[in-house]
Hints:
Blueprint: E1 4-8, H1 15-26, E2 29-32, H2 33-46, H3 54-61, E3 67-71, E4 74-78, H4 91-101, H5 104-116, E5 123-127, H6 130-134, E6 140-145, H7 148-162, H8 169-185, E7 198-201, H9 207-217
Parallel strand pairs: 1-5, 1-6, 2-5, 6-7
Antiparallel strand pairs: 3-4
Helix pairs in contact: 1-9, 2-4, 2-5, 3-5, 4-8, 7-8
Amino acid sequence: MSKVIAIDGPSGAGKSSVSRIVGKKLGFLHVDSGALYRIMTWQCLEEGVDTSDPEAVAAFADRVRIECRPEDGEIRYYVKGELPGDRIRTPRINAHASAVATVKAVRDRVTALLRGMTQYGDLVVEGRDITTAVFPDAPARFYLTASAEARAARRQKEEVEKGIANQSAEAVKASLLARDKIDSTRKHAPLKKADGAIEIDSTELTLDQVVETVLGSLNF
């Protein structure tokens, strides 16, 4: 049976960077669950679906075709034969993603896709409900967090480096806090620290220190 390392936490806590490095060191496939919700959001917007209408989003959810392929140490998602790339990383997607992610039909669809990925081998899966809803029985579960200021600075730096936005640190922080509130209060699979998950506050830690903490906590 495939091994799963599950990593949850809010935006900007370092989940993606940590998960990629841990996966590379262990030979596990990196899985970005958030990208699936962003793809669903992107497709809603492309097709003119009102993301503030849960029924419309739910009706559209099953029509989105996402192909999952294990490539170069990660699971990549193809839509209509193409990689979405940074089209799912824009402020516009950020503004609509949480609303789409609250819809149960969307969460059920994404959860099924994620669980099906165990067929490809051992996984490092990052997201917001991986330790609580998707893989609650995973032998290795972590909750990464950091101060709002640290998370905003990291996200702003990432957006500037990728050339996909040029928001102020305060604007990025406000966006993160708004998403935190939606994610932690939604009815279906809210963001929270799972019982038994190891919490790591990365505010004052380097990326390497967080990675070493995760690796040092594994017992398989």
